[in-house]
Amino acid sequence: MARVIRVDLTDLRVSEEALPEDLRGLGGRALTSELIAREVPPACDPLGPRNKLVIAPGILSGTAAANSGRLSVGAKSPLTGGIKESNVGGNVSARLARLGVSALIVEGTAPVGAMHVLWVSRDGAELRPGEEYRGLGNYDVVERLRKASSGTLSCLSIGPAGEMFMSSASIAATSTNGYPSRHAGRGGMGAVMGAKGLKAIVFGDVQGATVALVDKDAFRNAAKIWSDLVDDHVITEALREFGTPNTAGAIDAVGAYPTRNFSSGKFEGVEKIYGQTVHDVIKERGGKISHAGCSGCIIRCSNEWVDERGDYVTSAFEYETIWANGANCGIDDLDALARIDRMLDDCGLDSMETGCAIAVAMEAGVREFGDASGAIELLEEVRNGTPLGRIIGNGTAMVGRAFGVRRVPVVKNQAMAGYDPRGILGQGVGYATSPMGADHTACFAPAQSVFGVSEYVDPLKPDGQVEYARALQVDAAMLDALGLCQFVAFPLADNRVEGMSAIADMVNAKLGTSLTSDDLAELGRNVLRTEIVFNRAAGLTQASNRLPEFFLTEKLPPHKVVFSIPEEELDAVLDFGPAKST
Amino acid sequence: MARVIRVDLTDLRVSEEALPEDLRGLGGRALTSELIAREVPPACDPLGPRNKLVIAPGILSGTAAANSGRLSVGAKSPLTGGIKESNVGGNVSARLARLGVSALIVEGTAPVGAMHVLWVSRDGAELRPGEEYRGLGNYDVVERLRKASSGTLSCLSIGPAGEMFMSSASIAATSTNGYPSRHAGRGGMGAVMGAKGLKAIVFGDVQGATVALVDKDAFRNAAKIWSDLVDDHVITEALREFGTPNTAGAIDAVGAYPTRNFSSGKFEGVEKIYGQTVHDVIKERGGKISHAGCSGCIIRCSNEWVDERGDYVTSAFEYETIWANGANCGIDDLDALARIDRMLDDCGLDSMETGCAIAVAMEAGVREFGDASGAIELLEEVRNGTPLGRIIGNGTAMVGRAFGVRRVPVVKNQAMAGYDPRGILGQGVGYATSPMGADHTACFAPAQSVFGVSEYVDPLKPDGQVEYARALQVDAAMLDALGLCQFVAFPLADNRVEGMSAIADMVNAKLGTSLTSDDLAELGRNVLRTEIVFNRAAGLTQASNRLPEFFLTEKLPPHKVVFSIPEEELDAVLDFGPAKST
Prior knowledge:
homodimer, alpha+beta, Aldehyde Ferredoxin Oxidoreductase,  A, domain 1, 17 strands
């Protein structure tokens, strides 16, 4: 238990050690960020041997806790230059937890041109030559690894983008359906893995192994309360029926749906790409409108898109992907977007970063807004590593710099998600201040501003947004540490006391601790404290906690609003004071 | 006197004002950096309307002081993200001073697609439409402006690189020979000018006007001492005979001549491109081995390269350009390098940044080291604004990121000059700590480490390098404020007391002040203090005061040395404590 597997690609050494005593019980983002803070020199080259890729299942991953299947992948980011936790679903987190592995640390760099695959089993871990996988897309890699292994495949892999060290390169995780359609997308984690010369990590069969629980009965009771609470919520129901694409209609309705590179908050083609349409087309063609893409998921927001013949195209065809490559590029063709999603997954690219990069390229005139074939051509350029593809694949900020575009929607070099910060002010506060760079999962402001969860926060009124964005970030960090899906945040917000109590009970039953709800919140704050300290040492100051200028000066249609939160308020968002001594 | 011309491209407004009382007497880098610190929000978009381009002649510019013809061009840099003073010779600084202009401040941004030319005369300044110059190279712009004006042309202009907002874009200044061959090359000042929609600034005839002197006789006396001191020095004589290319032999001899993207300190082709060869070929073909490229220059280090038919190709064909595009790219063909220099000047590109960018592209395999035609092709790509050209034209760091290269010789994103920091440790300290990013003119360590000036500082011994690099940076900032050429630093180092006294006497005779040599050094320190404060607010911390990792781990042939100055020593280099109250 509490195995730490350490892999050094410089000398091809694999070793195991116990997790340091003071880190026992930690998991997910709390563990990746803490290990990075301890072991990675903040000023190091993100693509060099001193950076480390740290992979950790959440605290509750592998247990029966509903929606606990999230994995944290951390490193110093080649995109933001700061610490990164990129969170991914699929079947890896539970598998890793059941293998008894608390953390996998990948360090060093292989000699240029070398390529390896790491195989992790209950008995140990082993590096094997991976030259045969070089240049393959994630779909082909997974297919070959499936043949080379036994049982259900569970693996992480990178595509050509990661091999080319692109700053938008993702790490794919196998979904429960066996496809590499879940991605640790944000911050170029795939480039870090590529720079280490690691093409894939395969997690062997656990043969019925379970995560140890100190008090199984107490866990079962708490898990039941938790499961009921998550299950019985209006947003859970909506996600199950219409998936994340359902978000589009609501965000467009409030005028915060970024369209054509954040030049409008409403998209005239929204109904062609929103949840109802995605649902209807999939249903008509015989695809899956709902499935559990992550181990232990009871929400089942995921889907499988099929073509007109009913053949599988892509899965986890999500709101953010459809938005970034759709409305944000002026594209309203779901079949083209599904093909784009498949290409992104196969090449191993962050679908948001890349969609925003294409939109900025369209603003520069490289292609026209609305040109779906043009967007697909650009992705082919990325895959082929042409100069234009290198620009696109290195992210939105690089496209802006290359083509001299001023309207570039990034914070800390990372592209925003599908919520215009002028139309949902709390989201802007989150984008600006998250140690992750612009990130919607680190601070999901539509919850109370659009979706009607808990108390209403007016998305256009500055009052209270700072406190709101602070609370959201603390909760997000806590959930990322626990390995819980961010979609439990909706039922949790509506059942705060009961939900936090159930979570604390599960953690305590697993670990034999006596943590309170407050302790869990403090866990979230500590994650953020650790990340901010790292970022400061890496050279990211309050100057990086700002939105691009055009959000402050250019009025967003239809509400004609700008981002109006003063800088000094942004500076105070994550100023919690020192940690509680415990 | 002390005119400040303020030009706002947003509303096409030109106004004049007096220099604030407390800034009277300041000039050059002291004035550009102070005005930027006061007026430019440090976190602003360098290509946005809130950035300002500030142009100021040195304190002694326009007077009879030997080698006082240097101009400071400042802004927040789109390359480094920090404050920038880019220094340039030619005939502009003296002209501007004689027009009674202390500073020219360009702010705002023209509507996308608009292009203007600013005409400055004794009577006023005027913005005129500049559409007819769009897309032209600097040579054509200057030729057309010459026809549109009277008297000897004195102007600043940008080429296509500046119009495309490239981070390596320079601002060309007319040399005394009328060609746009002197460049404020570093830090993308041409992109800032391009983003403002300003193609050129023409400085009208001064018709015999002189700079006001409080005590003409005292000035004449001091200027004579100064002139004799500069004139009678062994390095002045060498520069006059062989120009800056003479540097190559000495730097190669000590094993610090960066070759093939900083992979060796010696270049097998050095004799084909060093000073003696440049001198011999020019002489044989009937070009100019020596001329005064800057107003008031008595050193005359500049040259004019001609082709085999004796036709002009380029001028100011300098060591750094020949090195960056030559040895650093494995190219030893002077005619190809002269053509490259002409292309760089015409397109308006920093020759060092671009040469280093090409070398990194060669390391990535985009072209082969040694392929002169390939380098020329890459410059054509830049000129044409192709995706590959956009990558190259945005500088060395962008090339490294685009192509996933780890060996990228930049600090604060700016490329190093022709002195490997491992082979001349003091130069490495300067590269790391200068607020300008890697910059040889901000801290020219070969002086005492290679050229035998003043006391010897062993280039390979860490001891004393920090103090040496500190003193050099203070002197460089002082000279940049005075408008003096950095090449006076050699005679000054060998005649410290007499030289500083002559400078102080000239300044006092001009301004009616009673400054001491110590006050002048404090002026230099104050410039650095101001710049560091700006950079911190812009988000540049000590984490940016580091060399790339490979200089710390990869041994440089032939001496097999790494850069060995500890980080805590780097952190102390520019820590002067608070300013002296005066």
